[in-house]
């Protein structure tokens, strides 16, 4: 809005006549005059400038007098004020970080009652120290408190941070939040993602016995953003000092068990196992879609804690359709036995999303131990192929060859990846796409034989379902991010996942290893006791026969995965012949005149005749259409004589059609049983509420009735087959837990496979038992490697961090304290890990070693490298104030807290007041200070 437009609006609002004569009246914009962008016509002898200055100075002097104060018209939007506040904080951020580092070091080791200050808060006699009254809010207190500003302070905000509080405004704060309260909320929200700012502020209000008001939550949010940005900067300084600020350093060292490789360790088929999947719980509603404006503010910068896990939108979009990877639009259903069975396999279902959502969820990858690797926002679409392709591309860039990733539609994704721009590189680096264990049992049997974890050599007992366990935690953030800005949504998600990695996941690392070792030993022991007996009953003398059976089953199902084209045409020809006979009979029936005749004609006879003529014409047209179709198929099949029911070809094709109906009934029955299996597993899943359990129970009751109906249709179709197929009972169907049983029924229509050795239930159970033992032995091998990696990592990391801290204690003690805090995040679990690793080593059957090895990671910053400390330049250079220190307003009366949110953005008036005083001094010869 231009100054002229602003004056016109003011004149219109006040009903002044100046609106019509604005071009000729002497109306001045003070801001433009003070900054020199506009001059005014006056003479010094006339005293115009002196009168103007005195009037303005009178207004400035009476700012604190509510009786004389007239609130100025503020035409800035909330976005403008927020952006100005953000910019002001950003300019002060380097000094705020320095102040926080000093405060944190000064309060190290103090009790809770002693923390909060690194300066003497007693009244000072030093004239360079000014004392101000500020409203300080803590966990158990909210009171006016005397804080000190020193001449060497860069700004009031940095001076307040030195005393353990975060201001809610950049230049003239009325209120400040204690750092202890902000840290408590940060940790509490990361432990309980349902906790919101409003709930926490209401809790503080209840503890202090005051009424909660919405502006209190706004003030707390402002201070929280500043505090989180300070922590981010401190974390960057720590990583820079430790030489761990190189690109992708966190990703390369995300999991000690996966990434801390050692010399002379056994080779593993898969260097890293990870799972990836999408989740639509963390959607964000676009403010433009609900009538608002989309915030462009990015907080105090574009970065946030945990942002090193996020893939940028530009990086993801380069793998999308229309950005150079048109291969993703090519159909792949012919190569995929599970096409159509999963929603995220359908491109038309994933290419769109409700317009009300901007981000429709997240897509992330985690290692087999639960550490997050990368995250990508799903933007205005469903779970498209570009997200897993981007994830795989990033991981291939960082980790290189021999990776294996589990994805719930890994069967189709393997084909999609090969056809994408990443395909040649993925094939050259030997990338393997897999299907997780839980999702795998809903895939076709042919897909299971190729991608299911149980049948893949080198995978061990890993189920590749880690994403589901992670999403069960992050779903609690849904309410907090649904209406947040883009920046605050990513800040919340990234901060939570980073905290979860460094605490829950890292703490459970050795717990998982101990449990997996016990599980693998149990499977091996059970297999050695039961498998020989079963093999003896089946007459099997060599375990290699199980691999042969698996190959035979794969070949059998591959050969019958599609109907032969000739059989398809024969069945279509038979069906069209049946339709032709039916249309011929109908045409003959309509065309044949009635045997009864009347001697006289009436109007109703004429109407009936017209109707019959129309029916006869339609019947003849249908007959001609069916005849044309039959003739076309006869040309394709090379039929010289049209089939009749007495022909052998007619009867053979009829049996094929009956078998097809049988398979269609089997498909419907299978889908109902799969839904029943999933619902039963959901009923027993922890975290399922009472109402959802009741809803699932009602759905199961209805599902059982649907299964009975589908079963009746299946048995009817089974009896129509030639020879008749085996019929099923309801008790047999509800006991099906593996879809392989359905696939055997489906493919048994063309030949009897009951005599195949791998088709009997006993042989299939023995085959599954054998492969479980094989996977357990592979798991033991991988766990032995991971145990030695963890032992070596604990030793090397502790040595490296202690050496760095000792060196920093001499050169920069405050930074040494921050490095110590960084080290304690994981070091607090060291004893826990040692105890669990000791328990693992003492297990009967343990075949690994407890001796640490020598790491292959020797780059600067790695745990085994020599410490080369770097003091960040921002912490080594002292910044001097460039302008007089602005003193926060204070007074004896109660503050008008309702106006804090507006007053905090008026810091520009301070500079205008100082400039105005200079104008008055030089413009008036007889200037005297007004009392």
Summarize this structure as a short list of keywords or feature phrases.
931 residues, alpha/beta, six-stranded mixed β-sheet, four-stranded mixed β-sheet, disordered C terminus
What does this structure look like?
With 931 residues, the protein is of the alpha/beta class. Strands 5, 6, 7, 8, 9 and 10 form a six-stranded mixed sheet that branches. Strands 2-1-4-3 form a four-stranded mixed sheet. A hairpin with a 4-residue loop joins β1 (129-137) and β2. The longest helix is centred in the last third of the chain and has 51 residues, at 761-811.
Note the topology.
Blueprint: H1 3-14, H2 30-34, H3 48-61, H4 78-106, E1 129-137, E2 142-150, H5 156-161, E3 165-167, E4 175-178, H6 179-191, H7 197-208, H8 214-241, H9 249-252, H10 256-259, E5 272-279, E6 284-285, H11 313-317, H12 347-350, E7 357-367, E8 372-379, H13 386-399, E9 403-406, H14 410-419, H15 423-428, E10 432-434, H16 437-440, H17 445-451, H18 466-474, H19 478-481, H20 486-507, H21 509-538, H22 544-559, H23 565-591, H24 603-637, H25 648-683, H26 690-720, H27 730-734, H28 740-747, H29 761-811, H30 813-827, H31 830-841, H32 873-876, H33 900-903, H34 908-923
Parallel strand pairs: 1-4, 5-9, 9-10
Antiparallel strand pairs: 1-2, 3-4, 5-7, 6-7, 7-8
Helix pairs in contact: 3-34, 4-8, 4-30, 6-8, 6-20, 7-8, 8-30, 17-22, 21-29, 21-31, 22-29, 23-24, 23-25, 25-26, 29-30
